[in-house]
Every structure is written in structure tokens, then in C-alpha cells.
Design brief:
The chain is of the alpha+beta class. Helix content is 23%, strand content 16%. It has helices at 93-103, 198-205, 221-229, 234-241, 288-297, 301-312, 368-372, 391-407, 488-495, 499-514, 519-530, 534-544, 587-599, 639-650, 682-691, and strands spanning 81-82, 116-125, 143-152, 167-175, 178-185, 255-256, 261-264, 270-279, 317-326, 332-333, 336-337, 353-362, 385-386, 475-476, 576-580, 603-608, 617-618, 629-632, 654-658, 673-676.
Length: 698
């Protein structure tokens, strides 16, 4: 038999024999061996390559929603649960794939809440929660270190602070029993009811993917397309359109845990609660024009305000409170579903009980090391605090830890200094990227004998999962019928506002929808407004040049005055008072006035034509947005003065001026414009006006 006819043994390295001499003649790549095959020539969207095709074969294919592997998806609005009110199941591949991909869309910036500001502080409990929760953090007089991160949602790290947006309010408690992360917002409800929809609402709110605009805004087509179709978002949206969407400062906004949590006491008794942060300075906002000006002249306005307040000793404080509900199998209160994160419980039905006070007392030493690297997770819970089957919260329990792995480079993000617990750790986790622990022993597993059985599980002082009975169930993507009411609470919120606040809401909807291109989206959203309030819908329709929508059946609701920001008075601590001067203003009078303002717990800012001792701003650098009130000691002949005073007047800020002065663009007879016989009267006359935040009847 010849050599060429003999069977060749397997293991041939290439498709053709190797020559003795090195090939030097250029030649194309060789084909695969006969026993080899390349992957199918299809695009990332499963489309075969078609040279000269009219459409890009890399684009998404077909008319049906699929997984990333091409399997059609029957439902993308509801997670897979154990019964309609049961917990979300880990086997929901679509939820996990959808959330996982979303969590890793940005490197290294946060997908949401990218722009933040942080501060250190202390939480001191008053003992009021000790009867309903066994967590040591609530023991009477107990002081616990905290780190708080405030943030916007939609904007990138380089965006402005004062955009219309929801604000994050995340608090890390370094308790003796392990870290507790209370990860909330400045609004008590959220856009969606189920965690599986989080990528959808954020994709809709983020800049358009083709142009990456608009930045940090919801005034565009994709946002309003989504919320007008997915109507469970209507309640949170009207909060965003209210003054709550443009806070005066982080120090002057509420915080909410949004979800319902389950507390257990030493006796094993359980209670359902919602967490509230109540600012000592009250809840205040900017006027819309003021917010727009601020975004241009000082995009760092909120983070600057927080840092300056702490540095100056005007330490921000919030009272932590809980609304308490009985833990019944129905998990409802006064007909309100406690597992629906688009619903709130009016404080008139369930008062907020204050259980402690948080004081922020120190700024970070390094923004990146602390504010940027801090990592929160709703599942970081001490003994006595547990989650519920709220389907949005259930999705967050998966999403947050998954996100940190991408953002912070691996599973050891809790070893970063700002995330390190201030309690003993023995977790049997080993290695991984950025491991800085000095582990000893040879047996990081349980059970073991080589390390003497260390560490041992224990029930003593441990966080025990509350044994909650589940009804006999079938795996389903259904939801409770109570989740289907999308308009009654939006109506409750709107009717709870003062006339001034309602006018602001109508203006916000008109502006946002006016920035949309598609007329049909505007029509659709105005029709949704008709289910909230007829007058609101008619006003917005008129402003947009649309016909008023047909009247809809409106829910019969009882307003909640607690939801309004206007009508009460608050401390003036940390308020900034601008003092307008000229070269002719007696220095001793200005010095005395500044001392009076400081003695009242406020911050004097002297504005002059030129810099010098005792001068805080010049007319070249000052703008109305940084002043809560203005004292006019004299009027410089400069256009900047006229602009500053006109803005302060339009934005309903208190103005005090010496008798005889005639400022341009200011009606000296209007409410909140007070005449002084001397600068020594300024503090006395301004303080009552500042306690109401603005002169609302101007």
C-alpha cells in the first residue's frame, strides 16, 4: 500500500501539510480543516449576512420581543411570582437577564443616580421603635454612624444639580449588628410596580440613544411615550411635575423608603412599616425659572449647599419616622395595598411616629473614595428588619449586588473603606478582584474540622428571616387587582396641593409635553390627565394647543394636607441673606447687620461693586439664586442689580430695603417687600417671611 493511501492518524494541525521551507509568498488565510466549522454567519441579532441588503442586518430583527437568545417573551411587565402576592422567584430568567444587562450598561458610572453628594453623620434613636423592632440601632439613646448619599436619577456625573428629577436619599447605617442600607428617594412612590420594568422606565427617561440628548431631563418623547402608555407611572410622574421635582436643597427635602418593610421585635411579633425622613428645615423647592438659572450659573448648587452648610456649622438634620400598620395576611391598610410601590398611605390615616434623628456633621475627605465608591443594597438589613413581597423591592434585591460587581470591579466592594461594616466580619468569602482581607486558616467552608469548626452559624443576635405564611399558590406573572388602580392616588396628590402648587404642576406638564415632537404622545398624556383632574387636563391641553379631552370618571378621594409644602412655618437655620451695598454704604452698619444675621443662625453674604475685606460677592459674581432673601442697603448703578432684584421679586423672595430707595422691577408695595428705617430692623422683619420659605401671596 502506498503512503498516500494509508489512513492518516487524527491530530493533523492544519488544512494542508507544512512545507520544509518558510513560506514567503503572500497568500490568503487557509480554510478550516475538513473536521472544523466556523460559527454561523449571523449578526448579533440573529440575522444572516446579506450583502447589499436594504436594512442593516445588525439591527434588531422581527416584530416580537425575545430574550437575548431569540426565545419569544410572552410577558415583560410582571415578574414570575409564587402567587399573585407571593415573592419573586429566582427562576425568572427573563427578569434576571433583563436586570443583569441593565445593571452593566455603564462602566464605571452608575446607570442611575450617577451625580451625587455625600456626607457623614450620626443617627440617634429615641427608643420609640424599640417595642416593634429588635434592631439595636433603635435602642433609646443609641448613636450610630451613618453615611448619606443624595443624588439625581437621570443625569450623568457631569449634569446639573437643579434639574427636574427624582432625588435619591440613601443612608448607610454602620450598626453594631451589621450594615443597614435604607435606600430611598425624596418621593414616597415610584414609577413602576415591578422590578422587571426598571430598565424600561430608565431607558425611556435617559437621553435618546441616537443623539445622547437631552441630558438629565424628562422633557422628551421617549419618557412621555412610556409613562403615557404604562399608566402605573402616572402617580410618580405627577410628583415629578410638582415642586418636589426641583428641591431648594438636599437639606430641605423629605426622604422615603418607598417600600413597605416588616419589623419584628424580641417577642417575634411583626409589624409593617414605611420609613420617612423629615427635614428639620421643612420641605422647600425652587421656582422653575430659578432652577433653570441655577443650572447655568451654578450646576453644583445642591452639593455646594450641603458642603457649605456643614462647614459653616448649620448642620442638616432629619427626623426618621415610621408609619405603622398591622401585619395582616391581606397586607393592606384602609383599602391601600401596602405591597404596591406606586401607592402611599396618607399621614392623616397613619401618622408618622418619630423614632430618631440624623445629623450630618462632616464632609468627605475625598469624593471618589467615599461618595463615588459607596455601594448600597436594600438587602443589607440588621436583625429585626425584613423585606416584603413588594415586586419592585424583590427585583431590587437582585439588582443592587449585581450592579456593584460591574461598577466596583468585583465581589469585594464591601471591603472598600466607605462600605466596610463597623461590626465583626467572618464570611468565608475568599479571593476575587480587589481582595484586601488577610484571611487565615485553610477551611473556608462549613462544616469543617481543620479550622476548629470556625466560623459557626448562630441564632444569637442573628437576622432571622421572618417566617411568613404563603398561600397555596401557582407560579404566575399575575398581580393583585389592587395594583390596577393607576389614577386615584395621583388625583389625591393633586387635590392635596395648594392653588399655587397646582399652577406649578400645570406649568410643568405644559413645558415637558411642549418639548415633545410627537403630537399623539401629547394627546395621549393629556387624556391621562383627564383621569386625574379635569381642570388640570384642560389647562395643559390649552397650553399645548390641543382640544380639551373628554371628561373621564374621577376617583372620589380625600385630600391629604400633609402632602403640600405650603402653609406652615419652619426654622430659618442656614438661610442665605444677600446684602446689596455700594461704596457709599456705611461699613459699620453693614458689619452690624451681618452680625445680626449670623446671630439668628443665618448666613450673611455682602455684595459690593469691588472685592475687599468683609465682601462675600461682587456684582460680577452674585446671582439671585443663592439668596433666600435680599437686604438692599443701597442700589448700585449697574444692570446686574436690576436683574438680581427682578429675579428675587419674580421668585417670590423676601426683600427688605432702606426707606427712600426705588429699585427697578420691584413693586415696593407688594407683599414681602418691607421698608426699613435702618438696617438694624432687617432681621426682625425678614425672619417671619423666611419661615414660610417664600412670599406665596405676592
Amino acid at each position: 500500500m502506498s503512503q498516500h493511501n494509508q489512513p492518516q492518524p487524527p491530530g493533523v494541525p492544519g488544512p494542508q501539510p507544512a512545507p520544509v521551507d518558510e513560506p514567503t509568498t503572500p497568500a490568503p488565510p487557509l480554510p478550516p480543516k475538513n473536521d472544523q466549522m466556523a460559527t454561523a454567519r449571523v449578526t448579533a441579532s440573529g440575522c444572516p449576512f446579506h450583502p447589499g441588503a436594504d436594512t442593516d442586518p445588525r439591527a434588531q430583527q422581527g416584530e416580537y420581543l425575545t430574550t437575548s437568545t431569540g426565545t419569544r417573551v410572552p410577558e415583560t411587565d410582571r415578574s414570575l411570582k409564587a402567587a399573585a402576592r407571593g415573592p419573586v422567584l429566582l427562576q425568572d430568567h427573563h427578569l434576571r437577564e433583563k436586570i443583569t444587562h441593565f445593571d452593566h450598561e455603564r462602566i464605571p458610572e452608575r446607570v442611575v443616580h450617577a451625580r451625587g453628594a455625600g456626607a457623614h453623620g450620626i443617627f440617634r434613636a429615641n427608643g420609640a421603635a424599640a417595642d416593634i423592632c429588635s434592631a439595636g440601632v433603635f435602642a433609646d439613646g443609641k448613636e450610630t454612624p451613618v453615611f448619606v448619599r443624595f443624588s439625581t436619577v437621570l443625569g450623568s456625573r457631569g449634569s446639573a444639580d437643579t434639574v427636574r428629577d427624582t432625588r435619591g436619599f440613601a443612608t448607610k447605617f454602620y450598626t453594631d449588628e451589621g450594615t443597614w442600607d435604607l435606600v430611598g428617594n425624596n418621593m414616597p412612590v415610584f414609577f413602576i410596580q415591578d422590578g422587571i420594568k426598571f430598565p424600561d422606565i430608565i431607558h425611556a427617561g435617559k437621553p435618546h440613544p441616537d443623539r445622547e440628548i437631552p441630558q438629565a431631563q424628562s422633557a422628551h418623547d421617549t419618557f412621555w411615550d412610556f409613562v403615557s402608555l404604562h399608566t402605573e407611572a402616572q402617580h410618580h410622574t405627577i410628583w415629578n411635575m410638582s415642586d418636589r421635582g426641583i428641591p431648594r436643597s438636599y437639606r430641605m427635602m423629605e426622604g422615603f423608603g418607598v417600600h413597605t418593610f416588616r419589623l419584628s421585635n424580641d417577642a417575634g411579633e411583626t409589624t409593617l412599616v414605611k420609613f420617612h425622613w423629615k427635614p428639620r428645615l421643612g420641605v422647600h423647592s425652587q421656582i422653575w425659572e430659578e432652577a433653570q438659572i441655577t443650572g447655568g450659573v451654578d450646576p453644583d448648587f445642591h452639593r455646594r449647599d450641603l458642603a457649605d452648610a456643614i462647614e459653616s456649622g448649620a448642620l442638616p438634620q432629619w427626623d426618621l419616622g415610621v408609619q405603622v400598620f398591622p401585619d395582616t395576611p391581606e397586607e393592606t391598610f384602609e383599602g391601600i395595598d401596602l405591597l404596591d410601590p406606586t401607592k402611599l398611605v396618607p399621614e392623616e390615616l397613619a401618622p408618622v411616629t418619630i423614632i430618631g434623628t440624623m445629623t450630618l456633621a462632616a464632609n468627605p475627605t475625598n469624593y471618589f473614595e467615599q461618595t463615588e465608591q459607596v455601594a448600597f443594597h436594600p438587602a443589607h438589613l440588621p436583625p429585626g428588619i425584613d423585606v416584603t413581597a413588594d415586586p419592585l423591592l424583590q427585583g431590587r434585591l437582585f439588582s443592587y449586588i449585581d450592579t456593584q460587581i460591574s461598577r466596583l470591579g468585583g465581589p469585594n466592594f464591601n471591603q472598600l473603606p466607605v462600605n466596610r461594616p463597623q461590626a465583626p466580619v467572618n464570611d468565608m468569602f475568599r479571593d476575587g478582584m480587589h481582595q484586601v482581607g488577610a484571611h487565615v486558616g485553610v477551611a473556608p467552608y462549613h462544616p469543617n474540622s481543620l479550622d476548629g469548626g470556625n466560623p459557626q452559624p448562630t441564632t444569637e443576635g442573628a437576622r432571622i428571616d421572618v417566617p411568613v405564611a404563603l398561600p397555596e399558590s401557582t407560579i404566575t406573572r399575575e398581580q393583585s387587582a389592587s395594583f390596577d388602580d393607576h389614577f386615584s392616588q395621583a388625583r389625591l396628590f393633586y387635590l392635596s396641593l395648594t392653588e399655587t402648587e397646582q399652577e406649578h404642576v400645570a406649568a410643568a406638564y405644559s413645558f415637558e409635553l411642549g418639548k415633545c415632537y410627537e403630537k399623539n404622545i401629547k394627546i395621549r398624556q393629556v387624556d391621562n390627565l383627564a383621569h386625574i383632574d379635569t381642570g388640570l387636563a384642560a389647562t395643559v391641553a390649552k397650553n399645548l394647543g390641543l382640544p380639551a379631552p373628554d371628561k373621564a370618571k374621577l376617583a372620589d378621594v380625600t385630600p391629604s394636607p400633609a402632602l403640600s409644602q405650603i402653609g406652615r412655618t419652619w426654622p430659618v437655620d442656614g438661610r442665605q441673606i444677600g446684602i446689596l451695598t455700594t461704596a457709599d454704604t456705611p461699613q459699620e452698619q453693614v458689619t452690624a447687620l451681618a452680625a445680626d444675621i449670623a446671630a439668628a443662625g443665618m448666613v450673611p453674604l455682602v455684595v459690593a461693586e469691588h472685592g475687599g475685606d468683609g465682601v462675600s460677592r461682587t456684582y460680577d459674581t452674585a446671582r439671585s439664586i443663592e439668596f433666600d432673601a435680599v437686604v438692599v442697603a443701597d442700589i448700585a448703578d449697574r444692570p446686574e442689580v436690576a436683574v438680581l432684584l427682578a429675579e428675587a421679586f419674580r421668585h417670590q423672595k423676601a426683600i427688605a430695603l432702606l426707606a427712600g430707595l426705588d429699585p427697578v422691577h420691584v413693586d415696593t408695595g407688594a407683599p414681602g417687600v418691607v421698608e426699613l428705617t435702618g438696617l438694624g430692623e432687617a432681621v426682625e422683619k425678614l425672619t417671619p417671611l423666611l419661615e414660610a420659605h417664600r412670599v406665596w401671596d405676592r
